[in-house]
Write a structure and sequence with these properties.
Length: 247
């Protein structure tokens, strides 16, 4: 799974316009911070050499810079988000909003190719770019990318407030509750999704817990399922697009 290689520390939000080299340097910054890259100039040279062959801006707002290099010890995937779009010489001449940067060692070329194919499959879902471009932080981006990675093609994420906070602020008789929730998050998020495959439901729960923490821990969140008898307009899950399981 592509999401096995992603973490909040490897999501770069707020990518701004610049030269290709500058954008690539910004995208690999997390690898410099955690020590995964020993020689950043070698990595940049490998990425730029690939761009000279053909732009990795594959169109539809997505770019997949990638290279095989001995400057990393393990495969690395980074997610970059450019909310306003940036010029990256894409094949369709359109701005890029989402970057998946992939680095692998030369002896992992076959695995590298499989990860590229996985990214290409995710890119077929039009909600990928729109969903990620709207993300405000790394955790939210991971939820969107992770759900798509396990084949959940439709989800709605909205800002929300818990009842306790509303009562404590808007209804005077409950004002004493403020001391109880003073340390709680000022804003919550609620995610809705229609998932046909029960196994994917569990995988979605596992994914969100891996980002937010266990739901059994206090003040983390809750999850529940309800039967849906009819849905009109639901996009097909990724695994059903070509009859294969891409797990």
């Amino acid at each position: 799974m592509l999401s096995d290689y992603l973490a909040t520390e490897r999501v770069v939000t707020g990518v701004r316009p610049g030269e290709v080299r500058d954008i690539l340097a910004r995208l690999i910054e997390p690898l410099l911070r955690d020590g995964s890259v020993r020689d950043p100039e070698t990595v940049l040279a490998s990425l730029l050499a690939r761009e000279k062959v053909l732009s990795t801006g594959i169109g539809y707002g997505i770019a997949v810079p990638h290279a095989l290099t001995s400057a990393v010890e393990d495969p690395a995937v980074l997610l970059g988000i450019a909310p306003d779009g940036v010029e990256f010489h894409s094949v369709d001449s359109e701005p890029v909003f989402v970057f998946f940067l992939l680095l692998s060692t030369p002896d992992r070329a076959a695995h590298h190719t499989r990860l590229l194919a996985r990214i290409a499959r995710l890119g077929r879902d039009p909600s990928l770019v729109s969903g990620l471009a709207a993300c405000r932080d790394a955790a939210q981006a991971l939820r969107v990318a992770g759900l798509l990675d396990i084949g959940v093609t439709g989800a709605t994420l909205i800002d929300s407030r818990g009842m306790g906070r509303i009562l404590s602020r808007d209804i005077p008789v409950f004002a004493g509750l403020q001391t109880l929730i003073a340390r709680s998050r000022p804003q919550n998020q609620t995610l809705f999704s229609v998932i046909e495959d029960p196994e994917k439901v569990q995988r979605a729960v596992d994914l969100i817990e891996s980002i937010c923490g266990r739901f059994t821990s206090p003040a983390t969140g809750i999850v529940f399922t309800v039967p849906v008898h009819r849905v009109v307009g639901l996009a097909p899950e990724l695994g059903a697009l070509d009859g294969r399981d891409h797990s």
